[in-house]
Amino acid sequence: MIESVIYMKVERPMKKTIVQAAGMITLIAIFSKLLGFGRELLMASYFGTSPTSDAYFVASIIPVLLFTAVGMAITTGMVPLYAEAKKKSKTEASEIMSVLTTLFLVLSFIVTLICLVLTPYITKIMAPGFSDQQLELTNMLTIIMLPSFCFYVLSAVTTGILEYEKVFAPPALGAIPQNILIILAIVLLTNVYGIYGIAAATLLGAVSQFLVQYPFIRKYNVLKLNFNFKAHKKLFRDTFLALSPMIIASIAYQLNAVVDRMIASSLQTGSVSALNYANKLMFLPLGIVLLSFITVLFPSIVDAAAEKSKQFVHLIFQGINVISLIGIPIMAVMLIESETLVNIAYKRGAFDDEASLLTTTAFFFYSFGMIFIALKEFLNRSFIAIHQPKITMIASVASIVANIILSLILSRYFGVGGIALATSIAMMLQTLFLCMYLPRKTEVDPAEMKSFLFSTLKLMLLFALVFALLYFIHPLYETLHPILSFFVSALCAFIFTAIGSLLFRLKEMQWMAAYFKSKSRRNKHG
């Protein structure tokens, strides 16, 4: 039964909410990720791995870097503050959130102005290998896209509150209009405005991401300008002390992407674009399946942590193993069919054989880190739920140091593939660090720890088995049409995983079987 595996003491209405939310978020995520994938496909077709696309991807990462530095901290860190205030009264929750939102908006505006002034210096640091002409283009694109940071911050506030209120659809829908605007700009404006039209659409997309959520957040009365800063000095101090480790951790994670681009800018032309295309392709299944599961589970983890329930550790261990099990067939297919997937996705128009080779190499090595990226995100949120953000900060800083060292070394031998491999190894090390630290910060039953480690070992053996079987049978059908070859690999991978799970008697497989059986039964009975 589902109750005995994951939600042992969680009431039936809560389980139904989680199941329904997971299904809804997954459907929205599929549509959103497919749109985003279509956006990258068109970018590859129109611009390939050219100096122009390299300039755009470096420029676009700057507002994203700024947002990520505070975005996840705001989305995740403000949830406990909002929950605590709301328990006292809705009026207090509205007052606290409105004054914090106003403060974040003012600070984001100031940071944007500073970055606009320092743009030439920032781009020179981020792309030291660019030519003067490329740097000039990067500067112009950065100036166009930088204001999007302010709207990303507003979206982070609304996302955190709406997800806590279990209103999952609007935050999930946010990326859809943004992707549509960029797609329209690529198709309709490229011939007239070139890459500048796409940069403008990226800015408008950030605005739309907030506007999609605005009608739903209005009733919580948190998005009003409130400059009553003096009355909340202690709140500001406590908030920044709490958020600073998360901000440092977020900056460290994004610095991985910045370091990748910095080193790639010194490699052959198109390396920055190849890393971007490979990363987006890797995040397609990651975002649709694994991160959707994490998003829906997080409110339950927060509640279990607040109640200091033993269910907290059980949720963590079960979540880790379910994420790993779901990721096994996906990762195996990505590794075996890396070239096929890149060619299906991108090989058309300006995306030639050289671009395909670069992107395939990066995608292959990024694929090793897919599961670890999901697990790292899951564990980061879990530590934040128990008010231990310093642990995530330490792990993130250590990860960026490892990534820098490994990227510098491995890029000499594997080029753009070495940069992707360094990122995957850094994510693995960060995940291991967080797993090892969990028993120090929460009470873990020795028997449950033993069971978790045994399940983890079986999952590792299962991945080795699935990958080996897929590797040996792949030559039998690799001459088929690429799309057909991919579907055969995917089908075989999931069949091998299912059979192996039954042979190894994995509890996670029993949970998923019960999950879908329960969901099917509910659908039949309405």
UniProtKB/TrEMBL annotation:
<dbReference type="GO" id="GO:0009252">
    <property type="term" value="P:peptidoglycan biosynthetic process"/>
</dbReference>
<comment type="pathway">
    <text>Cell wall biogenesis; peptidoglycan biosynthesis.</text>
</comment>
<feature type="transmembrane region" description="Helical">
    <location>
        <begin position="314"/>
        <end position="336"/>
    </location>
</feature>
<dbReference type="Pfam" id="PF03023">
    <property type="entry name" value="MurJ"/>
</dbReference>
<comment type="function">
    <text>Involved in peptidoglycan biosynthesis. Transports lipid-linked peptidoglycan precursors from the inner to the outer leaflet of the cytoplasmic membrane.</text>
</comment>
<keyword id="KW-0133">Cell shape</keyword>
<protein>
    <recommendedName>
        <fullName>Probable lipid II flippase MurJ</fullName>
    </recommendedName>
</protein>
<dbReference type="GO" id="GO:0015648">
    <property type="term" value="F:lipid-linked peptidoglycan transporter activity"/>
</dbReference>
<feature type="transmembrane region" description="Helical">
    <location>
        <begin position="483"/>
        <end position="504"/>
    </location>
</feature>
<feature type="transmembrane region" description="Helical">
    <location>
        <begin position="17"/>
        <end position="35"/>
    </location>
</feature>
<feature type="transmembrane region" description="Helical">
    <location>
        <begin position="103"/>
        <end position="123"/>
    </location>
</feature>
<dbReference type="GO" id="GO:0071555">
    <property type="term" value="P:cell wall organization"/>
</dbReference>
<feature type="transmembrane region" description="Helical">
    <location>
        <begin position="459"/>
        <end position="477"/>
    </location>
</feature>
<dbReference type="InterPro" id="IPR051050">
    <property type="entry name" value="Lipid_II_flippase_MurJ/MviN"/>
</dbReference>
<feature type="transmembrane region" description="Helical">
    <location>
        <begin position="356"/>
        <end position="379"/>
    </location>
</feature>
<keyword id="KW-0812">Transmembrane</keyword>
<keyword id="KW-0472">Membrane</keyword>
<dbReference type="GO" id="GO:0005886">
    <property type="term" value="C:plasma membrane"/>
</dbReference>
<feature type="transmembrane region" description="Helical">
    <location>
        <begin position="281"/>
        <end position="302"/>
    </location>
</feature>
<feature type="transmembrane region" description="Helical">
    <location>
        <begin position="195"/>
        <end position="214"/>
    </location>
</feature>
<feature type="transmembrane region" description="Helical">
    <location>
        <begin position="416"/>
        <end position="438"/>
    </location>
</feature>
<keyword id="KW-0573">Peptidoglycan synthesis</keyword>
<feature type="transmembrane region" description="Helical">
    <location>
        <begin position="169"/>
        <end position="189"/>
    </location>
</feature>
<dbReference type="GO" id="GO:0008360">
    <property type="term" value="P:regulation of cell shape"/>
</dbReference>
<keyword id="KW-1133">Transmembrane helix</keyword>
<keyword id="KW-1003">Cell membrane</keyword>
<feature type="transmembrane region" description="Helical">
    <location>
        <begin position="55"/>
        <end position="82"/>
    </location>
</feature>
<dbReference type="GO" id="GO:0034204">
    <property type="term" value="P:lipid translocation"/>
</dbReference>
<dbReference type="InterPro" id="IPR004268">
    <property type="entry name" value="MurJ"/>
</dbReference>
<feature type="transmembrane region" description="Helical">
    <location>
        <begin position="391"/>
        <end position="410"/>
    </location>
</feature>
<feature type="transmembrane region" description="Helical">
    <location>
        <begin position="235"/>
        <end position="255"/>
    </location>
</feature>
<keyword id="KW-0813">Transport</keyword>
<comment type="similarity">
    <text>Belongs to the MurJ/MviN family.</text>
</comment>
<feature type="transmembrane region" description="Helical">
    <location>
        <begin position="143"/>
        <end position="162"/>
    </location>
</feature>
<keyword id="KW-0961">Cell wall biogenesis/degradation</keyword>
